């Protein structure tokens, strides 16, 4: 239809400056404006993908709603729950850090699923790395509150583990947003980072069990199953993620492993 109705569009190579001029003209008919910067045009269209039904719709909105959930919980906890419980300043700080990590996790995933189809491979891979960084920060955020309250009566070990977790958050974030993170040369480092983030929680957990008198202690029997359930949920989510089920059996469908991974991820956090 372009060739018949707009003579100038016939034979225009896709991605060329001329093609962007044609798209700008078509765009102006709808929005009564001409976008002169092709980069802005591409980003504007992808931003509008937030309101278009596509393969990423569920992933985008589930993570966006997850962010709003943690943001609302943060406001409620900091303004109602903690003051009513007579919480200390440290309780406020720990709660804020923990919920902030969860919100970063959700927003990074929103950005990735929104811009993963960017025509620039470099931009797409940067968002993917940022998504990985957000997931790692969300997991480490779980350790912040767990370590703080598990070692509440042992100030020395509480400080040791908290400093370690916060240092890991910073180190993992800067490592995963590094331009070389997704390259083959960093393959081994990626494995080390993943194993460190996932397995770190086992160390303070075993230490906490030992300090409280072993597995026979009543407090251990009450809380240890919850830790086990958390790791079980994480393991199931990871299996869905690496196996790419169900999209490997039903390619092209809107329902993907990400739709399963997110509810498990949310319940883990």
From TrEMBL:
Keyword presence, Transmembrane helix: yes
GO terms under cellular component: membrane
Pfam short name (any one): HlyIII
Highest taxon of source: Eukaryota
Annotated membrane topology: Multi-pass membrane protein
Sequence positions that bind Zn(2+): 113
Location within or outside the cell: Membrane
GO molecular function: metal ion binding; signaling receptor activity
Keywords annotated in UniProt: Membrane, Metal-binding, Transmembrane, Transmembrane helix, Zinc
Spans traversing the lipid bilayer: 64-85, 91-115, 127-152, 158-177, 189-211, 223-243
InterPro entries: AdipoR/HlyIII-related
Family to which the UniProt record says this protein belongs: Belongs to the ADIPOR family.
PANTHER family documented for this protein: ADIPOR/PROGESTIN RECEPTOR-RELATED, PROGESTIN AND ADIPOQ RECEPTOR FAMILY MEMBER 3
Protein name, as recorded: Progestin and adipoQ receptor family member 3
Organism: Cyanistes caeruleus
């Amino acid at each position: 239809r372009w060739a018949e109705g707009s003579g100038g569009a016939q034979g225009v190579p896709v991605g060329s400056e001329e093609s962007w001029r044609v798209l700008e003209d078509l765009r102006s008919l709808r929005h009564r404006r001409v976008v002169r910067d092709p980069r802005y045009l591409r980003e504007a269209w992808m931003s509008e993908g937030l309101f278009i039904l596509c393969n990423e719709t569920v992933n985008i909105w589930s993570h966006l709603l997850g962010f709003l959930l943690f943001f609302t919980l943060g406001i409620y906890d900091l303004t109602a729950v903690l003051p009513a419980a007579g919480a200390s300043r440290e309780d406020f700080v720990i709660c804020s850090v923990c919920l902030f990590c969860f919100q970063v996790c959700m927003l990074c995933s929103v950005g990735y699923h929104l811009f993963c189809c960017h025509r620039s491979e470099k931009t797409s891979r940067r968002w993917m790395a940022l998504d990985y960084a957000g997931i790692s920060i969300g997991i480490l955020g779980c350790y912040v509150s767990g370590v703080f309250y598990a070692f509440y009566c042992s100030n020395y070990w509480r400080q040791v583990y908290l400093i370690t977790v916060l240092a890991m958050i910073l180190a993992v974030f800067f490592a995963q947003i590094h331009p070389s993170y997704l390259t083959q040369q960093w393959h081994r480092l990626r494995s080390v980072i993943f194993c460190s983030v996932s397995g770190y929680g086992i160390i303070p957990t075993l230490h906490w069990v030992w300090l409280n008198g072993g597995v026979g202690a009543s407090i251990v029997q009450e809380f240890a199953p919850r830790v086990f359930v958390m790791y079980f949920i994480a393991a199931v989510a990871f299996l869905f993620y690496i196996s790419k089920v169900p999209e490997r059996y039903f390619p092209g469908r809107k329902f993907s492993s990400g739709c399963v991974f997110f509810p498990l991820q949310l319940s883990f956090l």
